[in-house]
Amino acid sequence: MIKKIYKSLTSTNCKAQELINQEEDPEVLWVQAHEQSEGRGLGSNEWLSEPGKNISGSLVIYPDFLKAGQQFEISITASLAVVDLLNMYFDDVKVKWPNDVLVNNKKIAGILIEHALVGEDIKYSIVGIGLNVNQEVFPDDIPNPVSIKQLLAYDVNLDELRELLLEFLANRFSQLENGHFDMMKRDYLKCLFRFKEFAPYKSGNKWLHARIMGVDSYGQLILETESGERKEFGFKEIEFIN
Ligand code: BTN
């Protein structure tokens, strides 16, 4: 794996894209920045991270063993690696579908995955990970953030943490490549926030009280209402209500 660590970038996902375009031979790559001026989150969200305090990085992989329709498997894999890492420190680590990582119900990490698809194939995937590590104060408009330091009350060495994260990522991606997706899916459901618990949701302007029964192979969330009716939702189609 090639590792490139920069002081300042617009976004590690963008830099990763730039490096892929320059590279002739596909090689697994990790791009990290101490500071991102235009960190991106899911949808149109931005990702704000205090310079030098957190992990902001993107892993470039070439999952030629998967088809485009299986791209959610990459999302599950990346989420599990972050959960594995956080399980070293905390008991209550959950994934809020599709791939926000929560500790004690607060968001500690976010994942932004971008795929380059060619026909049925995935040419490469850029797995962007933002993990709150040593940041102690967050802007008021960030919903429900938390960092490792806020929970442990001590600083964590960022280089050591990055190496552990990369090990967990390598482990989980090799499980995926070696055909262990069923086991990984079970692990994902085990740590899925609100799995099988009735809770409120909103879809468009419709409110529903439902429970998560799983995710389908396209990564859609499967909800079941109290009357037993099941429905799948894509990312923009459903909102978790507290
Ligand atoms: C989210 O929760 O909305 C996803 C956040 C993803 C943030 C990471 S930080 C590294 C990489 N570069 C980006 O610009 N975004 C991702």
Low-confidence stretches: none
Question: On the 0-100 scale, what is the average pLDDT?
Answer: 97
The major pleated sheet works out as: 7 strands, mixed
Terminal-residue CA separation? 41 Å
Helical residue percent band = 25-40%
Give the oligomer, counting copies of the same chain as homo and different chains as hetero. single chain
Number of helices: 5
Distinct bound molecules: biotin
Taken in chain order, the helices and strands follow as: EHEEHEEEEHHHEEEEE
Beta fraction: 25-35%
Q: In order across it, which strands form the biggest sheet?
A: 1-2-3-7-6-5-4
Label the structural class.
alpha+beta
Record field, number of beta strands:
12
Anisotropy-based shape: globular
Rg, Å, rounded? 18 Å
Q: Nutshell version of this structure?
A:
The chain is built from 5 helices and 12 strands.
Q: How would you portray this structure in words?
A:
By secondary structure, the protein is of the alpha+beta class. It has 5 helices and 12 strands. The chain has helices at residues 12-22, 72-87, 148-152, 158-177, 181-190; strands at 2-9, 29-36, 55-61, 93-96, 100-103, 106-118, 121-131, 199-203, 206-215, 221-225, 230-233, 239-240. The chain has a 7-stranded mixed sheet, sandwiched between helices. The chain has a 5-stranded antiparallel sheet with strand order 11-10-9-8-12, with no helix packed on it. A hairpin with a 2-residue loop joins strand 5 (100-103) and strand 6 (106-118). The protein is globular. The termini are far apart. 35% of the residues are buried. Bound molecules: biotin.
